[in-house]
Structures are given as structure tokens and as C-alpha cells.
Amino acid sequence: MKILHIETSSKNCSVAISDGEILLCLCEEVSENYKQSESLHTFVEWALEGAEIALKDLDAIALGKGPGSYTGLRIGAASAKGFCYGLKLPLIAVNSLDSMVEAFVNQGFELIVPLIDARRMEVYTAVFDGQSGEMISETEAKILDETSFSDLADKKILFIGDGAKKAQEILNLHHAEFRADIYPSAKGLIKKSVEKYNCNDFEDVAYFEPFYLKDFQGIKKVDRIKKN
Question: What is the CATH architecture of 2-96+184-198?
Fold first, then answer.
């Protein structure tokens, strides 16, 4: 099956095309300015060209459902649902934390812990088994402090994601390694997406919402109205 994979939950705007578990093409870019709105559809076009297929050849759309950037998730979900409606294709949703883990499975770590930077000392996180790659704790929004993950101090842990930098600065875990240059990627959605496709584990396109985990917190505009 040929699947278009979209991942926009972080600073990495990422699109991939796969044939089963075989990656055909990957287009992605990490930007501090969150360029999903201006880059996503261009990346889809480039990925299709690189894979030498057309939209009509697709069998499903897969989406990194979050957690992550509220705006990024909205853009990704809107695009994925648009493709599903227009092409009459099923929608597959995968936890964005899953997409970060696959490359590090069976690399000698007992546990893999993605950390997506949220705000201040908060991260979105879960714990994965380093051998199977399966999630072994629920996804949560966690406030980091000196005692975070202290119950795992005797484990060999790999912390990955843009939240790993601030974690490294305060955690006292002697067996831990940190990789802050890892972001959710469409490439990392492929294995889980194929598994879900084969099980007919699809989303209801009409009612699907991204996995925000937390309510949106916007910035209040300054009241510029002068009162007499």
C-alpha cells in the first residue's frame, strides 16, 4: 500500500511517502519559525514527485496526531482531512512521540524517553521500551524538576527531542544520554501506520481531532482602547 505521511507537531515540517514499510521519499525541514503553513503542501508535491506517484495512487493518509504545537497540529490535521475527503481515503493517526523512537530501538538503551518542548520547564513525554519500541507509560505533560525520572535512575536511558536540552541541565541521571536534535518525523510514522492499515484501524475523518493533550493557551492582546 502507498501512504502519504504528514508530521507537523513540532518545528519539523515533515512529509513522507511509503510503499508498505519502504520509504520512497522524505521531505522535511526544521525551522524555528514553524513553517508548516507555507511549506506543507509544497513538501507534499515534492514527495509525490520524488516517489514518482500521483495523489490518485495513494491508499491512505497517515498523520502524526500530537502532542505538540497547537497551530502545527491544526495545519496538519486540516490538510490530512482534506486529502481524505477529496480522495476518499482512510485516515490513520499515530502518536507523534512514536515517530521519534523508531530509529533508536535496539541501540543498547533500556528506555527511550521523547521530550517535546512545551513551555517553560514543561515537556510532552512518555516512556518507551528500548528493545521493542513499545510505549510503556501514558503520554503526559510533565513539569521538569530535579526529581523527574528519578525512579529510573538505575536504567540506561536515552532522552530525545528538543526538550532534552533543558532536561539535561537539571536531571542528575548518571546512565542517561541526551539528544536534543531529534524531532517528530513523517519517516517515523511508517511502521505504526502500516500496522494500523493492516488492522483497518482508521479514524473517523469527520470527527477526528488532534491529540492536543492540553488546552490552547494564547497570548492576550494588549487593550489599546483608551477609556475616558
Answer: 2-Layer Sandwich (3.30)
